[in-house]
Amino acid sequence: MKKLLYIYFFCSLYLSCTRNSETEKYQNKRDNIIDVREKVKEIETGDVLIGSIATVNLFRDYLIILDFKSLDKLIRIFDKNSFNYITSVGRKGQGPGEIINMGHLAVNEADGKFYVTDHSKLNIFSFDIDSVLADTAYMPSIKLKLNKNIFPDRYLYINDTLCIGRRIEIIDKDFKQSVAKWNIQTGEITPMKYTHPNIKNKRSLVTASEKHGKYVEVYELYDLITICNLEGDLEYNIYGPSWDKRRVRTKHYYGPVRFCNDKIVAAYSGGNYRTDEYYPTKLIIFDLNGDYLKTLDVEYKINDFCFDKENSRIIMSLNDVIQFAYLDLDGLI
Length: 333
Prior knowledge:
Blueprint: H1 2-23, E1 24-26, E2 33-35, E3 40-42, E4 54-59, E5 62-67, E6 73-79, E7 85-91, E8 102-108, E9 113-118, E10 123-128, H2 129-134, E11 141-145, E12 150-159, E13 162-171, E14 174-182, E15 189-191, E16 204-209, E17 214-219, E18 224-229, E19 234-239, E20 251-260, E21 263-272, E22 282-287, E23 292-297, E24 302-308, E25 313-318, E26 324-328
Parallel strand pairs: 1-19, 2-23
Antiparallel strand pairs: 3-26, 4-5, 5-6, 6-7, 8-9, 9-10, 10-11, 12-13, 13-14, 14-15, 16-17, 17-18, 18-19, 20-21, 21-22, 22-23, 24-25, 25-26
């Protein structure tokens, strides 16, 4: 009987090790670095002055910039091909249809709408793009009221019954992050199944792809990327050269992450979060299984970026000598 137990134990241990070897990837060296600073082209916004904190989003033929420090209209809309300014919407204020504390933007391509969160009013506002372009006085409608204690923060809209992104739970004076599915019709939020066992203080960013059936979570405080399917099953943990399950308290690792065609692109810092080294200056390119391909060294400090599939380029918001820029990806990925 004891012999059978030993055999069972070692078989179980072997299967566990095999399973881990399939999902746990350690990348001790990422040295295929390409300097692309000279390929970065500035985007001029002309007379439209945009504050230092801004994010970039693409919706159909439009580049939508969220201008968090604006004192009037918070949402700036440009032509994504020419970068010509079109209009602004989303007035700052406490009145009906106005925004106090702007959060994330998500796009509903099928219905021609984009959604913007107001964390103070606990509203998700719905903007109809055709109406925005036709009426300079356009006011949004309310898509959904949020729960003040548990709510979606940044998310990918797939349809009204399925959004995937970051969930925030307020606990006393602190908060807890997790990846979750969200039904925007009912407000129901369901956390994904997988969480990394060694991450105690999670600060992460998430992107998802319906086409590829995956979501990617990158960690700000750890040199780690997690790839799961849309059901929340682990596919891969990708450990970078500086991985340590004991958090290095001064280090900041990953910034925004995006799917770019059949690649995963993650902004990477590795610097001291108490200084300007906090900002990522590199874009690390992985395949869909998390295998390392190359690093694009932009050399500018990246706030945010998005992927323009039609023009095969990355559009960036920067905290540097230029504020907005693009990088053509032809020949790079």
